[in-house]
Design goal:
The chain is of the alpha+beta class. Helix content is 18%, strand content 25%. The protein has one domain: q2cbj1_9rhob like domain (Jelly Rolls). Strands 2, 3, 4, 5, 8, 14, 16 and 18 form an 8-stranded antiparallel sheet that branches. The two termini are 30 Å apart. The structure holds 2-oxoglutaric acid (AKG).
Length: 284
């Protein structure tokens, strides 16, 4: 693997005395530190997921208007007319920037979720990216294995964490997430488009020179939540089932994180939103 250096990689920022109401158990924390991820099973009930599922359907079908800042992305094969979607739901790959939506923002600011996030980010928490991934059937829809840190111009990486919540049972058939355990311990790798990626969104980069045979598929039930490090290699395969594979996901970072490259400019378009604690004047 060719790792190239991240610009600056300070150590954990000052989060020593966090007040997380849901500390991770020693085993959970060890798993995260050693493997780069941990799955908390049965984290959300079906009743808790229901409003987010309903909202997704309402927005895709146009029953409710979406906030202006929310970005709805068609699958590339549908957008190029290579596949005709049978239903509006089968056309959409991703909905991004959920922070201004009255219903989806209850996921981003969910207290139970933030109590876990505090373990990684400390008390001042911003959501720096968030989305619904719809993964429709009948299209390529792969997400090549990649590292999310590529998209974040601030550090330290250890104070950034992602959540990925299964909104229904996810398995190998419908394209569950796959991760390469321990890959968060390496640096940021060179990324590019897949050689056979003509039906994949060009913005879905994959890490180069990796051994994909090391990947582990994470089958999850509705309501299970995966927490993962931004350097962990992860992605997903095709959805070979007949329905959409839906997940809601958010990245969080400590407000104390520092920009390294061109960050302030990017932040004006990325809508970083404080969800707990207070603004840090010299932070992100
Ligand atoms: O949900 C998926 O299938 C993959 C999502 C992902 O890795 C991403 O968008 O960064």
């Amino acid at each position: 693997m060719t790792a190239y250096a991240t610009p600056t990689e300070p150590q954990y920022v000052g989060i020593g005395s966090h007040t997380a109401a849901r500390p991770l158990t020693a085993d959970e924390r060890r798993h995260y530190d050693e493997q780069g991820y941990v799955v908390l099973r049965g984290f959300f009930s079906q009743a808790e997921l229901a409003p987010w599922l309903q909202r997704l359907d309402d927005i895709i079908t146009g029953r409710v208007p979406k906030p202006g800042t929310m970005l709805m992305m068609k699958d590339i094969m549908v957008a190029k007319g290579r596949v005709q979607a049978a239903r509006p739901q089968d056309a959409i790959a991703k909905i991004q920037d959920l922070q201004d939506d009255a219903v989806f923002s209850t996921y981003l600011a969910n207290e139970k979720l933030l109590d876990v996030i505090e373990n990684f980010c400390g008390p001042n928490i911003k959501t720096v990216h968030n989305m619904l991934i719809n993964k429709p059937p009948g299209v390529d829809g792969r997400h090549p294995l990649h590292q999310d840190l590529l998209y974040f111009p601030f550090r330290p990486a250890d104070n950034i964490v992602a959540t990925w919540t299964a909104m229904e049972r996810v398995n190998r058939e419908n394209g569950c997430l796959a991760v390469i355990p321990g890959s968060h311990k390496g640096g940021l790798l060179e990324h590019g488009n897949l050689p056979d990626g003509e039906n994949i969104n060009l913005a879905y980069f994959g890490a180069k020179n990796i051994d994909i045979e090391q990947r582990v598929h994470l089958e999850m039930d509705a309501g299970d939540v995966l927490f993962f490090h931004p350097v962990l290699l992860h992605g997903s395969g095709r959805n070979l089932s007949r329905g959409c594979r839906r997940a809601i996901s958010a990245h969080y970072a400590a407000g104390e994180c520092q920009y390294t490259v061109n960050g302030r400019q990017m932040a004006t378009v990325r809508h970083y939103r404080l969800v707990r604690g207070h603004e840090i004047p010299e932070g992100i």
